[in-house]
Amino acid sequence: xxxxxxxxxxxxxxxxxxxxxxxxxxxxxxxxxxxxxxxxxxxxxxxxxxxxxxxxxxxxxxxxxxxxxxxxxxxxxxxxxxxxxxxxxxxxxxxxxxxxxxxxxxxxxxxxxxxxxxxxxxxxxxxxxxxxxxxxxxxxxxxxxxxxxxxxxxxxxxxxxxxxxxxxxxxxxxxxxxxxxxxxxxxxxxxxxxxx
Length: 196
What we know:
By secondary structure, this protein is α+β, with helices and mostly antiparallel strands.
């Protein structure tokens, strides 16, 4: 039967594994550049997000994302001082599967000019700017050669929970070892008394 200290350690480890927020970095490399009409193998976009599978269904959804950054722009919980509006409108990720997202951002449309962009995973990433007398755009389109890479990185809190659980296990092992040593010493003492 497991001792209470071991049960406590197991509970701490299990709760940390289930409730921890997970930070993941991602990138896509290799896009068709619309404006030049060429495939660019080194063209890339990158980002990261924090999420927690609150309902435990194994699929991360928009409501479970607390931070989403794409190409240095934050889309959840505040856009930044230069951005008028931004948002993460769609999101879905199943670990080991595809990442689906739709973002958009824009500067103040009432100023001298406006800049912004959007990203729809699997379709395109587009940045654009309009000003009196001109405009510019930069568009990357997904192809069959676009490579997706995802790197899960545990949050520091997860490491802390793991360390706490391992510490409790080490303490339990030390107590067990001390109790065994004391029991063995008592047994030797009793044997010596019987021999007398």
